[in-house]
Amino acid sequence: MTDAAELRRRTAELLAEHPPATTGRPDFLKARFDAGLAWVHYPEGLGGLGAPRSLQAVVDAELEAAGAPDNDPRRIGIGLGMAAPTILQYGTEEQKRRFLRPLWTGEEVWCQLFSEPGAGSDLAALGTRAVREGEDWVVNGQKVWTSSAHVARWAILIARTDPDVPKHRGITYFVCDMTDPGVEVRPLRQITGEAEFNEVFLTGVRIPDAHRLGEVGDGWRVAQTTLNNERVAIGGMRLPREGGMIGPAARTWRERPELRTHDLHQRLLKLWVEAEVSRLTAERLRQQLVAGQPGPEGAGMKLSFARLNQEISGLEVELLGEEGLLYDDWTMRRPEHVDFTGREAGYRYLRSKGNSIEGGTTEVLLNIVAERVLGLPTEPRTDKDVAWKDLAR
After folding, report:
1. Which of 300, 266, 307 has the alpha carbon at shortest distance from 281?
2. Can you spell out the DSSP letters for 226-291?
């Protein structure tokens, strides 16, 4: 049985055989994965040891103290937080062994081809089609709001394979090679000036059936695994006290006494307490995950994350007065990840506006919490039993 002492022993062996000071970053990460110390709760041979998820912190602390490199989780967050748990649950053994190692080491970046221009909040209404031709599926359609598509090698993709059944039942889940012919990525410039999002056009893209996750027509159920993990990844990330948005605001308050007012003080105290409550709730949620897969509770954390980010960033801009209206650089860039705390208050204020849309809109998440967490009556859905091809669009 793997316990904390055994994990410390294995970590010490890894560090002795691959000293971080003399081992290249890619080689160290591959060795860590092969030693089962990547995500310890995964099965042996897939980066883990079948140990309790809670023991991951033991390994991480030992490696951090030794100065070992990490796998830059912000850059590969979609792969780590969404693709990996879905592949683990629904993938074949061949798929798990092909995709999980380079995903975790960061050799291959992943993106998510879910939302469409006409299917965002109502994702099950998606219209991208996948038609079977022999051992391949031919995919045509358009996806939108795709983070990291411009640097991604692989994508998790849901497409409609049967238009003659109700919308939730005619969807299939695939892994798409972003380097294949017919995949076109175009930048979407945001209010921040950057284009971390993209729109993706799929024209005659051939996906082998071997890259299908789950059964044909069962893609909505597979996608729920992805979406539940996505909300936990966004709203339940591990942070120290005053981590995230509240950190810069509190730091400005301490360092700039001339900006203080009584009203701002009261608002900052309220938001500081709420941020701390949210941080501790996220920690409790992660501990609950030790017992199984994430459920709809992650929607509540994502709701809290979005609201707090927007309120805190608004307070910070107000606190700074005229300085808060300044913006450092409108240059069109295509970053590999979002940096909420590495830039100035104006960036945080603008970028946080997207938090209540990405990863599930606030309105949809409120419905999920109401219906699936609190058990309240569901909203009437007149299209639930109507074939997708007969829906008004």
Report:
1. 300
2. HHHHHHHHHHS----TT-TTHHHHHHHHHH-GGG--HHHHHHHHHHHHHHHHHHHHHHHHHHHGGG
Q: What is the pLDDT of residue 294?
A: 63
Identified catalytic residue from 194, 230, 297, 316: 230
Would you call 207 helix, strand, or coil by DSSP?
A: strand
Q: Report the candidate in 227, 234, 245 with the shortest Cα–Cα distance to residue 364.
A: 227
Residues facing 201 on adjacent strands: 142, 184
Does the annotation mark 230 as catalytic? yes
Which pLDDT does position 203 carry in this prediction?
Answer: 98
Q: Provide the CB-side half-sphere exposure for 160 (13 A, CA).
A: 24
Positive or negative torsion for Cα 14, 19, 20, 23? negative
How many CA atoms lie within 13 Å of 137's alpha carbon, on the beta-carbon side?
29
The SS3 call for residue 22 is coil
Tell me the two tokens of residue 52.
Answer: 């309790």
Residue ranges in the chain whose pLDDT is less than 50: none
Query: At 220, is the secondary structure helix, strand, or coil?
Result: helix
- Residue 55 sits at φ, ψ, to 5 deg, of -80, -5
Per-residue pLDDT at 369? 87
Strands 212-213 and 110-113: unpaired
Spatial distance between the Cα atoms of 94 and 345, rounded to a whole number of angstroms: 46
Partners of 174 in the β-ladder: 157, 212
CA 273 centroid distance within chain:
25
Which pLDDT value is given to residue 292?
A: 59
**DSSP E strands: which ranges in the chain?**
110-113, 129-133, 136-143, 154-160, 171-177, 183-188, 197-208, 212-213
Which residues have C-beta within 8 Å of that of residue 60, sequence separation ≥ 6?
none
